[in-house]
Specification:
This protein has 164 residues and is mainly beta. The protein is 9% helix and 36% strand. The longest helix has 15 residues.
């Protein structure tokens, strides 16, 4: 499912204008404070009273070297600018079962709906096609509901551990 350009382009302009010069509300790292993965901005904080969060995510670095992760809530991602590759397990996740990962290219305008336990990892394309070059960032709108579980990581050999 894709968001039509006549909606996506004005939405991108609105978000870019709104965030211009603003510091992110949250920086998501891979555990090292100097390695930012996502710059998160809260777009409509008043929606929280209904248990819904709408955020802009400037994804600036891949989840390289990390295990696939799940989330504590259902979510909808709308890829507004750029593209990325999403790695996600094939079949059911089960403790002790090794993970087979499938790669899906997520395109500009794509709408991705995920359940809370749906694991994934985001890999951005690299400039000039080289793994050694910086990642090409992308912008998404990330909508999620209230937390219904803990979140964590799935190792390659199928073991889940809670995020800290």
């Amino acid at each position: 499912m894709h968001l039509p350009n006549f909606i996506r382009k004005p939405l991108v302009r609105y978000i870019r204008r709104r965030l211009a010069g603003e510091a992110p509300d949250q920086l998501i790292t891979n555990g090292d404070p100097g390695s930012i993965l996502i710059e998160r901005y809260n777009l409509f904080p008043w929606l929280r009273i209904f248990g819904v969060h709408v955020r802009a995510h400037e994804i600036v670095c891949s989840d390289r070297g990390r295990h696939v992760h799940d989330h504590p809530w259902w979510s909808v991602s709308v890829l507004l600018e750029g593209y990325y590759y999403e790695m996600h397990p094939v079949g059911d996740l089960a403790e002790g079962k090794s993970l087979d990962l499938r790669v899906t290219m997520r395109e500009e305008g794509e709408i991705i709906i995920r359940g809370a336990a749906q694991a994934h990892r985001i890999v951005l394309p690299c400039s000039w096609g080289s793994y050694l070059q910086p990642d090409l960032p992308c912008l998404s709108m990330f909508i999620h509901g209230p937390a219904i579980r803990r979140w964590g990581y799935w190792s390659d050999d199928g073991h889940w551990s809670a995020a800290k």
